[in-house]
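User: Could you go from structure to sequence for me? I need the amino acid at each position, not a summary. Structure tokens:
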């Protein structure tokens, strides 16, 4: 099969190899997916740059956790009726060497749920890390119906879905965006109020727009950098659900201030989500896709051979939407 892999850590153009690898066989409890698409996420590029230093101890790695395709074979214990199903994948390269940057991937059956006919394979490749992370951030700490939810970086891959999940669940959504195009994307996803996080007064602008009413929940893309201002706009008993802190990797917390507000801090990563949370996300994703309730942003679609370019796109931090690789027919 055609695949992309790396045998050492480093720059995408230097370490990603495009060539032939053996086609995998599904083990017990697994399915073999003939992939049509594979999406690149920031965690994929970070792994390639040694965020997990022991990742290559077992040999070369085929990257990427997210993708979509058709089940071609099943392992022992998996119903043969699954053969021929359109599916999306998640956690394909978590705790395992071989992900979705290939023609085929064998992975646990539960990590290849049904992709409704209404959704394309490109859309399916966006459902793993972006949509499931957003779902967990919005729903991990109870219903948001009737609440006000702030989504920072609302035009990003996760933020865009977080706005939609919150709005679909009956929340009033506020988002931050840095330019007119991103603000419009947030508005199209369901945000009622947009403030510019490039402005040093964005927290004051938010409270002015809400006439002083504070938010109940924050879905935050930059925990450390945003914390000071978030604490000025979040209500007592609020929840901060965060999935990234890139600017300040080891933020210092004003513990007493946060304790006296009885805040909940929720750290979210799809890889470690409880199985029940994954199942909840998958069920809601399938229902929303079937009903056509979700908007999607695929920024670029490239052939598998251009995997290095796709990694560079994600690493640039300038791409709004997912970057998806497509396999040869």
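Assistant: Here is the amino acid at each position, in order:
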């Amino acid at each position: 099969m055609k695949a992309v892999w790396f045998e050492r850590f480093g720059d995408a153009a230097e370490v990603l190899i495009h060539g032939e690898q053996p086609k995998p066989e599904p083990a017990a409890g697994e399915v073999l997916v003939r992939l049509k698409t594979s999406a690149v996420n920031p965690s994929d590029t970070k792994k390639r740059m040694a965020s997990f230093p022991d990742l290559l101890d077992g040999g070369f790695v085929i990257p990427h956790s997210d993708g979509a395709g058709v089940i071609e074979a099943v392992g022992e214990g998996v119903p043969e009726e699954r053969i021929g199903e359109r599916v999306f994948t998640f956690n394909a390269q978590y705790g395992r060497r071989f992900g979705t940057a290939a023609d085929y991937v064998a992975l646990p059956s539960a990590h290849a749920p049904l992709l409704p006919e209404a959704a394309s394979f490109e859309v399916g490749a966006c459902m793993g890390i972006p949509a499931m992370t957003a779902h967990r951030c919005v729903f991990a700490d109870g219903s948001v119906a009737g609440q006000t939810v702030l989504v920072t970086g609302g035009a990003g891959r996760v933020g865009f879905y977080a706005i939609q999940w919150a709005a679909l669940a009956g929340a009033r959504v506020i988002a931050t965006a840095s330019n007119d195009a991103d603000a419009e994307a947030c508005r199209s996803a369901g945000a009622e109020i947009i403030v510019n996080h490039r402005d040093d007064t964005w927290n004051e602008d938010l409270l002015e727009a809400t006439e002083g009413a504070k938010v109940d929940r924050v879905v935050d893309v930059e925990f450390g950098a945003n914390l000071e201002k978030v604490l000025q706009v979040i209500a007592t008993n609020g929840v901060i659900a965060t999935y990234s802190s890139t600017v300040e990797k080891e933020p210092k917390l004003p513990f007493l201030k946060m304790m006296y507000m009885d805040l909940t801090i929720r750290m979210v990563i799809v890889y470690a989500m409880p199985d029940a949370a994954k199942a909840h996300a998958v069920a809601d994703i399938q229902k929303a896709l079937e009903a056509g309730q979700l908007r999607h942003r695929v920024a670029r679609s490239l052939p598998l051979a251009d995997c290095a370019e796709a990694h560079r796109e994600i690493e640039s931090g300038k791409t709004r939407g997912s970057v998806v690789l497509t396999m040869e027919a």
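One structural detail worth keeping in mind: The longest strand covers residues 30-40.
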